[in-house]
Amino acid sequence: MQRERWPTRLTFLFAAVTSAIGLGNVWRFPYLTYKYGGGAFLLPYLIALVVAGIPLLILEFALGQKLQKGAVDAFASIKRRFSGIGWLALFVGFIVISYYAVVMGWALIYFFASVGVPWKSDTKSYFFSNVLHLSDSISSIGTIVPAVFIALLISWIAIYFSVWKGTKSVSKVVNWTVPIAGILFIAMIIRSVTLNGSLTGLSFYLKPDFSALLDSEVWIAAFSQIFFSLSVGFGVLIAYASFNKPTNDIAKNAVIVGVSDTLFSILAGFIIFGTLGFMATAQNVPIEQVAASGPGLAFVVFPKALSLMPFAAFFSMLFFLILVVIAYDSAFSLVEAIDTVVMDKTKIRREIIALVVCVIAFLSGIIFTTNAGLYFLDVIDHFVNSYTLLAVGILQCIAVGWVFGADKLRVYVNKVSDIKIGKWWNFMIKYAIPVILTFIVVTQLTKEFAAPYENYPQWAIWLGWVSVVAPFVIAFLIPQKSVQKGQ
Fold first, then answer.
1. Measured between alpha carbons, how far apart are the two ends of the chain, in Å?
2. What is the three-class DSSP state of 487?
3. Are 115 and 317 spatial neighbours (Cβ–Cβ below 8 Å)?
4. Which of 249, 255, 281, 323 has a CA positioned 20 to 30 A from the CA of residue 241?
5. How many CA atoms lie within 13 A of 66 on its CB side?
6. SS3 helix, strand, coil % of the chain, rounded to 5?
7. Could you tell me which residues are beta bridge partners of residue 144?
8. Of 357, 312, 310, the residue nearest 162 (C-alpha)
9. Stretch 421-432: mean pLDDT, rounded?
């Protein structure tokens, strides 16, 4: 059966960029920049983009495009047992999408609630009590929260109809969501930087503290954020690239995706800190008291700032619609990576594959809709992203760099690309990136054994470790089918 194709190169780029750009670009990068030296943080971040980000993008684009296969069969073509690397990447993506869709559901709830700005009196209570109905601890699971459950169901219906026709349906979605998100994003930037006090916030965001560059933690944060931000290690970009023609320009595509993701992150900081500067000025408090990251920024601090604005309902809807769109695009890309592998291995209709994957992922996400859902999300997210995802990055560098041959793949990349990459790329894939990612894992492990993560009970910590170990066991125990002759 002839392989699916993207209708245009621009559509592929739209799909790859929207997969890379996620909620972390909005609620994590700006805070890291503020925390680790302001504008000075951009230096290690840009170095990380060149040293690790773009080389990894080139690796995944080249692997998928050259072999015309999803992650599992692509790694199996290198060496049969390496199919486990592909399975591991998909299991990581499956775990992440099971709770990521719940966060998309939260944004959806806020979008519809924005009409009345019901959180304006107490944003913290609204999020934790009215929306999440959060229990006292992870041990108090409680019951399913109806609103979150319904929002999750709506999210999965939307995801299904984005991937059910493969590249045909994905192309239609990204050709709409990218322009819409771009327009909303620009409108929000203009509004944020023109608020009273916005310059105070932007100064905190960008004012450089070059002494921070001497702190190893700053460099770890920069490389970690690059790796997490670009959607490498999930098998998504391998799958997307496999739908390109073998002659598509790989190096240029990687640069465009990497730079686009970075530019979005930097500009998102203008929205966040421009608005937080306004909030600090309006409340006459230091900006340090309102700066935050993660869900707390998106669903507690930022809604408070929005409620203080003129036309609060309109700009609240604008902000949460942006969150819904970028979460949506990232979410269905993880599903598409899984669907592609199953399509490669079976003759089952894509619509059926997509339905089964979406239903299973929806059911897996129900635990995150309970009263203790936020706690479970925090634990699983921490362990999977800190260990399993980084392990995929290390393993795929070893598989490509040392077994398939970095130089062999580089020759192919240069053959189809206008931008020629030198032997520095071989060095990054074979040595630099595996060493950097290993160092990050070891550093995190040191912290892990020093104190339990966020002081969760021991059983919750063990649950986190199970989410790390189980994908390894399953991925490398799956029966390996013989690679077809000539592959």
1. 16
2. coil
3. yes
4. 323
5. 24
6. 80, 0, 20
7. 370
8. 357
9. 97
DSSP per-residue codes, 183-218: HHHHHHHHHHHTSTTHHHHHHHHH---GGGGG-HHH
Of 137-141, 181-185, 212-216, 433-437, which range is least confident?
Answer: 212-216
At residue 370, the 3 state secondary structure works out as strand
Helix (H) or strand (E) holding 395: helix 389-398
Nearest Cα to Cα of residue 330 among 93, 91, 58: 93
In this structure, which amino acid lies at residue 182? G
- Give the chain's count of helices (H) and strands (E): 24, 0
pLDDT tier, 1 (very low <50, low <70, confident <90, very high otherwise)? low
What's the one-letter identity of residue 332?
F
d(CA 124, CA 298): 11
Helix, strand or coil for residue 8?
coil
C-beta of residue 86 within 8 angstroms of C-beta of residue 338: no
pLDDT tens, position by position, 37-78: 888 999 999 999 999 999 999 999 999 999 999 999 999 999
Q: Is 144 helix (H, G, I), strand (E, B) or coil?
A: strand
CB 290 within 8 A of CB 34: no
* Structural contact between residues 18 and 178, judged by C-beta atoms closer than 8 angstroms: yes
* Structural tokens at position 372: 């203790």
165 CB-near residues (< 8 Å, 6+ apart): 350, 351
Task: For residues 96-101, give the mean pLDDT.
Answer: 96
Query: 311: how many CB neighbours lie within 10 A of its CB?
Result: 11
> What are 380's two structure tokens?
């699983």
* CA distances (Å), origin 68, targets 4, 247, 296: 10, 11, 41
In the structure, what pLDDT confidence band is assigned to residue 204 with cuts at 50, 70 and 90? confident
pLDDT-above-90 percentage for the chain: 82
- Residue 472's H or E segment, with its range, is helix 458-477
pLDDT tens for residues 209-263? Answer: 899 899 888 999 999 999 889 999 999 999 999 999 999 999 999 999 999 999 9
The single-letter code of the amino acid at 117 is V
Q: At 351, which amino acid appears?
A: E
Torsion region of 417: left, alpha or beta (phi above 0 gives left; psi -120 to 50 gives alpha): beta
Report residue 17 as tokens: 């960029």
Cβ 243 vs Cβ 5: under 8 Å: yes
Q: Is residue 94 within 8 Å of 361, Cβ to Cβ?
A: yes
Q: What separation in angstroms does the CA of 141 have from each of 131, 298, 377, 453, 456?
A: 16, 24, 12, 19, 14
For residue 379, the surrounding DSSP H or E stretch is helix 373-383
Tell me the whole-structure pTM to 2 decimals: 0.94
